[in-house]
Amino acid sequence: MKKSYYGTYMAGIEKRTISLPAEHAAFIDAKVASGDYASASEVVRAGLRALQERDAAVEKWLREEVAPAYDAFQKDPSRAVPIDEAFDAIRARHAARKSKI
User: Fold this and answer.
1) N or C: which end of the chain has fewer CB within 10 A?
2) Closest CA to 69 of 56, 51, 81
3) What does the domain layout of the chain look like in residue ranges?
4) pTM of structure
C-alpha cells in the first residue's frame, strides 16, 4: 500500500478525476446504493472491463470473419451480392420476424 495526499491506496492503482453527465453519476450512485457495488470506483471499473470485452469481441470479429470475407471477395469478386438484393433480403427477413411478434 502507498500513501498519498488522497489517502492510502493499492500499488498499481492510479487516481483519476473525471466529469460525468448527471444521468451517469446518478446511475453510478444507484448501483452503489443498491448494493451491487461497494463504491463508485467499482462501478467504473466494471464498465471499463465491459468496454474492453466489447472492443476485444469486435476486434476478433473483424479479424476472424470480416477480413477473411473481404479477402475471399478480393480473390473472387463474383461472390458479391448487388446492394439492392442485399437490402431486399434484409427487409424480407425483418418483415418475417416482425410478423411473428
Assistant:
1) C
2) 81
3) 22-99
4) 0.66
